[in-house]
Amino acid sequence: MSKVKSIFACTNCGATSPKWVGKCPACGKWNTFVEELVTKPTAQEEKQRSWKGPQSGSHQARAVPLNDVQTGNTQRITTPDKELNRVMGGGIVPGSIILMGGQPGIGKSTLLLQLALQINAITLYVSGEESEEQIKMRADRLGGSRSNCLVLTETNTDKILTVAQQTGPQLIVIDSIQTLSSPHIESTPGSVSQVRECAGEMQRFAKETNIPIFLIGHITKEGSIAGPKLLEHIVDTVLQFEGDQHYSIASCAPSKTALAQPMKWASTRCSRAGCARCLTPASYCCRKKTKTSAAAPWRPLWKACDPC
Ligand SMILES: [Zn+2]
Predict the structure, then answer these.
(1) Domain 76-278+286-304 of CATH type 3.40.50.300
(2) Which residues surround ligand 1, an ion (CB under 5 A)?
């Protein structure tokens, strides 16, 4: 039987405590602890996760001499988006988890649906926010091929991973991590426990199957992805979308580069018709420079563009 217990978790960093505390001892933020009921699955239940075949998990752990480890054979999946390839150090690493964070409406879903339509790989686009019809309408606006893009509207992680196991895509996009819900713990979608559990399940799936997964993560009012530090520890790369809805331009920079090269910046301009590389971010910076308000979101672009 699963054990149900009550814990208190920090909504900023995911730190947990058996009792409520006013100030988070891990990240120092005040009043971020909320109570959550967590069901911990037993080892038997863990094995019964529906996406896992009868053989999975039964392989033996083995240690190998370091000399026998082959390197340099990792074939990155290159995307048609040169900026995205560049910012990720040459392409998508198989089995990696990439978190794409940013404010709602800035163009994250558009950029990743466009990627799913243009990339030369079968992509499973999972949405917990839009219906199949809405996704189709957006795809019609973006153009590109639809034959490689599978659409699934689902929020249950077990069902998503079972479909992924059956269809065998080469890339998975999850829109968004906050809408997902794991049946293995009792907690509401978007809560610290759910976000951590769902991201952890995605990570285990990616590592076991070598299928890379993009997770879209919305930014909260305070300017952070729900449990940002907690997600940063789970994923391999964080691509942070920043910008301004008025100018419809966003910069994209990996804030964690476990698998990518050192920090790189890219600038992308998003509109209803899709996202495209912005070759003249400097001109936007100049326009923004005259405005004293809301300068902070533009900071990354100053790094991305030439001095102007
Ligand atoms: Zn904290």
Answers:
(1) yes
(2) 10, 12-13, 15, 24, 26-27
Beta strands in 42-153 (DSSP E): 97-102, 123-127, 149-153
Long-range contacts of 297-304 (CB under 8 A, 24+ apart): 297/242, 297/243, 297/244, 298/242, 298/243, 298/244, 299/242, 300/240, 300/242, 300/251, 300/253, 300/265, 301/243, 301/249, 301/251, 301/265, 301/267, 303/265, 304/251, 304/253, 304/265, 304/266, 304/267
Q: Using the mean position of ligand 1's atoms as its centre, give its distance from the Cα of residue 84 in Å.
A: 31
Q: Hey, where are the domains in the chain?
A: 1-45, 76-278+286-304
Distances 79 to 20, 23, 187, 197 between C-alpha atoms, Å? 46, 43, 36, 29
Q: What is the DSSP letter of 84?
A: H
In order along its 308 residues, the chain shows pLDDT tens digits of 556 778 888 887 888 899 999 999 988 889 888 888 776 666 666 666 666 655 554 456 788 888 887 776 678 889 888 878 877 778 898 999 998 888 777 778 888 998 899 898 999 999 998 999 999 998 988 887 778 899 999 999 999 999 999 999 999 999 989 899 998 888 788 888 888 889 999 999 999 999 999 999 887 666 555 555 678 778 888 887 776 655 455 556 666 655 545 555 566 666 666 666 665 554 444 334 344 443 333 333 333 333 22
Q: How many CA atoms lie within 13 A of 78 on its CB side?
A: 4
The Å distance, Cα 255 to ligand 1 centre, comes to 19
What's the 100 CA to ligand 1 centre distance in angstroms?
A: 21
Distance CA 49, CA 30 (A): 37
Alpha helices in 174-224 (DSSP H): 192-209
How far apart (Å, rounded) are the C-alpha atoms in residues 164 and 158?
Answer: 10
Cα of 101 from ligand 1 centre, angstroms = 19
